[in-house]
Write a structure and sequence with these properties.
Pathway: Carbohydrate degradation; glycolysis; D-glyceraldehyde 3-phosphate and glycerone phosphate from D-glucose: step 3/4. Keywords: Cytoplasm, Glycolysis, Kinase, Magnesium, Metal-binding, Transferase. It catalyses: beta-D-fructose 6-phosphate + diphosphate = beta-D-fructose 1,6-bisphosphate + phosphate + H(+). The chain has 548 residues and is of the alpha/beta class. The protein has three domains: 256 residues, 3-Layer(aba) Sandwich (Rossmann fold); 187 residues, 3-Layer(aba) Sandwich (Rossmann fold), CATH 3.40.50.460; 72 residues, Orthogonal Bundle (Arc Repressor Mutant, subunit A). It has 22 helices and 15 strands. Helix 8 crosses helix 9, helix 13 packs across helix 14 and helix 13 crosses helix 15. It starts with a helix and ends with a helix. The protein binds 1,6-di-O-phosphono-beta-D-fructofuranose. 1,6-di-O-phosphono-beta-D-fructofuranose binds next to loops.
Length: 548
């Protein structure tokens, strides 16, 4: 690999860790836990891993001898900055327990476990990837680990490699599956522990005990840098309205964090759209009103941030997607057999009257996307739906109507952008480099403590790293029952933007000013070297959530 100058310099960075992890640790166990909702149903499905306590690691002077234990690692789902540091943390943690421990990486996601494709991760390989972005050390994939055949097939290779614990680095769906696997291996006495690590740029895997999913910090900083640059460009030429869609699946955490960082003229928060039961038309009117007000001041330019999951939160479309999910879960083969040019008509004929009308009203491309290409977890691939174009076009049409009616006299020239993939493999910010390494190191401590069905947890991360708290949370504690593919399933509850939370409230109290006036902030690129107030900042979301 040819390395850039920055990559060479950055390799030497020593990630900061919670103080307790610098030496030998002992475990402190809290009280029994229960799932966030549907306790009875979740307990029934997880009889061996339900109700376990939250644990915390504290320093000890005791000398503990650990027997050898090999570990397997899987990177699951979309890339997120810092994944390599999680693996480096696991590696260093396991070696500190016993220098003969080995770490194996399963290749290209959970599929590598099932297909027995793996690689031993030795010190020289790990060193090549410290503090770098990407998941290319072993690759990632979206194969869903869900059947007992897959679990048994995985167990064959785990036994062959003498692997005592598997760490699954993934988002809410992958960690749900990790928990199902932990339960199964415990039930059959397989002798393999399963630990999860909270990954996803989307920021939607968080709760009381998991402050953030790794990668969110870096991805938002990358997007905010570029949005800031666009804002400076548009404030210089003063002739374009930029419609910027931001990745992040259903939740609007990324859009909100970027809005807090750059202070755009408009930012849609999907969760608010749902709460206010807004239609696409309402949203278009709101944006067009902001455009018209700025035009009245002579400012025919601006920025609009759009969360990629927006379309799913417009109540009429949400109801449509839910009926489509149920329908296609039972009639996928029938649907696939219909000629492509007949599929739209076929769906229109099968849906209830209301949903059929909404479906028929959508532009061809958007309608098609709602019926096709679900990911293996059954999610509509919202990143493929071009809402930024849809909105730019609809706002343009609305302004043209207003112009005709003499209500608007400005110029409207839109530009559209989608920021997603460019942020997922960026070199991790100091926050993500430190957080990820600590998560990995904590996973090794959970393994040493014999835990299974736990997610690695590092808290208090707005304080300096030596005050961070390392521990573990039972995955069942985060679960509830949700309808997936037409059936009720136990899943980790997704964290959406809370409309009564401090980050949204801060945004809401400033947005009117940001809409009409030009209050842009230009955050600039992530800094790795320099003063701590420049290099070690957390996201504004996390700071506000923690009242700082
Ligand atoms: P994860 O939940 O797997 O972390 O996915 C993150 C994400 O980047 C989403 O924001 C986006 O909708 C999706 O992946 C895109 O998926 P793909 O990489 O398969 O195109």
């Amino acid at each position: 690999m040819t390395k850039s100058a920055l990559q060479v310099a950055r390799a030497a960075y020593k990630p900061k860790m919670p103080k307790a992890l610098h030496g030998t640790v002992k475990i402190e166990e809290g009280a029994a836990t229960q799932s966030v909702a549907d306790q009875e149903a979740v307990e029934k499905l997880f009889p061996h891993t339900y109700g376990m306590p939250i644990v915390k690691f504290v320093e000890t002077t005791d000398k503990i001898d650990y027997p050898t234990a090999n570990v397997g690692v899987i990177l699951s789902g979309g890339q997120a900055p810092g994944g390599h540091n999680v693996i480096a943390g696991i590696f260093d943690g396991m070696k500190s327990l016993n220098k003969d421990n080995k770490v194996y990486g399963f290749l290209m996601g959970p599929g590598g476990l099932i297909d027995h494709k793996y690689q031993e991760l030795t010190a020289d390989i790990i060193d090549e990837y410290r503090n770098t972005g990407g998941f290319d050390i072993i690759g990632s994939g979206r194969t869903k680990l869900e059947t007992t055949e897959q679990f048994d097939k995985g167990l064959e290779i785990l036994k062959k490699l003498n692997i005592k614990a598997l760490v699954i680095i993934g988002g809410d769906d992958s960690n749900t599956n990790a928990c199902v696997l932990a339960e199964y291996y415990k039930a059959i006495n397989a002798g393999v522990q399963v630990i999860g690590c909270p990954k996803t740029i989307d920021g939607d895997l968080k709760n009381e005990m998991i402050e953030a999913s790794f990668g969110f910090d870096t991805a938002c900083k990358v997007y905010s840098e570029v949005i800031g640059n666009i804002q400076r460009d548009c404030n210089s030429a003063r002739k374009y309205w930029h419609f910027i869609k931001l990745m992040g699946r259903s939740a609007s955490h990324i859009a909100l964090e970027c809005a807090l960082q750059v202070q755009p003229n408009f930012c849609i928060i999907s969760e608010e759209v749902e709460a206010k039961e807004q239609s696409l038309d309402d949203i278009v009117n709101e944006i067009a009103t902001a455009v018209a007000k700025r035009a009245a001041k002579g400012d025919n330019f601006g920025t609009v941030l759009i969360p990629e999951g927006l379309i799913e939160f417009v109540p009429a479309i949400k109801a449509l997607i839910s009926e489509l999910n149920d329908y296609l879960a039972h009639h996928q083969d029938e649907f696939d057999a219909i000629a492509k040019d007949q599929q739209r008509q076929y769906i229109i004929s099968k849906l209830s009257a209301d949903n059929s009308a909404v479906y028929a009203s959508l532009p061809e491309g958007v309608a098609r996307q709602l019926t096709l290409d679900r990911d293996p977890h059954g999610n509509v691939q919202v990143s493929l739906i071009e809402t930024e174009k849809l909105l730019a076009e609809m706002v343009g049409n609305r302004l043209a109507e207003w112009k005709k009616a003499g209500k608007y006299a400005g110029k409207f020239s839109p530009q559209v952008h989608f920021f997603g993939y460019e942020g997922r493999c960026a070199g991790p910010s100091n926050y993500d480099a430190d957080y990820c390494y600590s998560l990995g190191y904590t996973a090794s401590a959970l393994i040493a403590a014999g835990k299974t069905g736990y997610m690695s947890s590092v808290r208090n991360t707005t304080a300096p790293a030596d005050q961070w708290i390392a521990g573990g949370v039972p995955v069942t504690m985060m679960m509830n029952m949700e309808r997936r593919h037409g059936e009720m399933k136990p899943v980790i509850q997704k964290a959406l933007v809370k409309l009564d939370g401090a980050p949204f409230k801060f945004f809401a109290s400033n947005r009117e000013n940001w809409a009409i006036n030009t209050e842009y902030v230009y955050p600039g690129p992530i800094q790795y070297f320099g003063p701590t107030e420049v290099c070690d900042q957390t996201t504004i979301t996390l700071r506000l959530e923690q009242g700082k």
